[in-house]
Amino acid sequence: MLNKALFTSAFIFSVSAQASISTYNLTPVVKSPFPLSYSETDKNGLDDANKKLGYLSEFSKAYVDVSKHFDTVESVCFEVDTEYSGAGSTPGMAGVSMYKYFVYSETFRGDNRASTSSGSLARPTFSKCFTESEGFAKSFIREGKIAFTPFTTDPRVTISDVRIQVSGLSKIKGDLVTLNAQLNALGAHTGEILTHAVEPNVTYSVSIIENNMTYNDKGDKYRSVGVSYINNQGEKEIKSVNDFSSEYIETQGEIELFLIGNDATSKGDVSINIKKVNID
After folding, report:
1. Which residues form the signal peptide (predicted)?
2. Longest Cα pair distance anywhere in the chain, in angstroms?
3. What pLDDT, on the 0 to 100 scale, is given for residue 8?
């Protein structure tokens, strides 16, 4: 079984300026609230001939966005947690169908296909890693998303959580820093600023890669992160970085990252890419 602690842990690490194989724990977009009640029927009905870009993620019950993370995908691993409303061992099976197509060239692709795996629920968590051939894996990059449907075969068994780990050739250069919504929310309690060292007098871009932070118990999201630094003129600046745009900054050697909110109700993490850029 895959290591659940690895799937759920936050991470702070750097990747080299050269392209490298990296593994990321990515948050899926699921089209129904947990717990999920998806059956084998929900994974069926794929239109093999529909070659519209985005069709796979529209058809599936869930997807994970890999557009910011990868130039190639080597493996996709799933963990599906289940809950049983009855007594005794969990009946039936759980599984995942993952949707793809073969990319022959920039202008020619094959029909839509599904890779499906399922297993008995002697343990309440179903785990599976898919390793697709290069041609099929290229469809994930072309789509920017890996579309899938988790399911169970017994209506009394629901899905309480889905975790995804993807490995491939990383397109992220520079530093990838994780900001935690409980630790780094400045508000009524004890949140603190996260400090990250950079080279002075060098231009950096700061952008959000993965954001699953919420600021209240209803699940409403944080959309932006605060960035504070001292610029080359010795002035203190504060900028806001959101999910849709990058900020470009030059500092005297340090960046401070933070949220404004209540650390008692905030949850989740955000991954922030800090990298050198060349600006003429």
Report:
1. 1-19
2. 68
3. 46
Region of residue 257 (left: phi > 0; alpha: psi -120 to 50; beta: else): beta
- Domains of the chain with CATH codes: 21-170 (no CATH), 175-276 (2.60.120.430)
Residue 275: the pLDDT is 93
**End-to-end Cα, the chain, rounded Å:** 50
Q: Measured between alpha carbons, how far is 50 from 105 in angstroms, rounded to an integer?
A: 18
Q: Count Cβ neighbours within 10 Å for each residue of 112-126 and write b for 16 or more, e otherwise.
A: bebbbbbeebeeebb
Spatial separation of the C-alpha atoms in residues 168 and 30, rounded to whole Å = 23
Q: How many CB atoms lie within 10 A of CB 232?
A: 10
CA-to-CA separations, 104 to 25, 74, 132, 136, 234, in angstroms, rounded:
29, 17, 14, 9, 54
- β-pairing, 125-130 vs 70-84, is antiparallel
Q: What are 115-164's pLDDT values in tens digits?
A: 999 999 988 999 999 999 999 999 999 999 999 999 999 999 999 999 99
Structure tokens belonging to residue 115: 């890779």
